[in-house]
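Sharing in case it's useful to others searching the archive later.

Someone asked me privately for the predicted structure of Transcriptional regulatory protein CreB, so I'm posting the question and my answer publicly. Question first, with the sequence:
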Amino acid sequence: MSFSGLIYRPVNHTVTNPQGITQKLSTVEARLLTAFLSSPGSVLSREVLMDRCITPGNEVFDRAIDRQVSRLRNRLQQLLPGVVLLDTIWGEGYRLVSQVEAHNECLT
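And my answer, the predicted structure tokens:
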């Protein structure tokens, strides 16, 4: 999948920028990014993100999602300095502000 010039490879949890610099994401960060890429432009609440990203049976507080989104946002900003890809919608959740394009080669 590509978005804002970045290429995301979900199989190995990596994001690569146009200069070839790659960031390896944690499992939760990768799940978050997959959730955002599946619903570009849509506001995803903490509850939705927790359902999509946290393993059932783990007790997690909604602020933990805030920290994970912050970490993902920082990783993406390292790849595209000055570009905001994840918006915080106060009182509602978070939103990916980018067009998303699927590519078969990104699945490996």
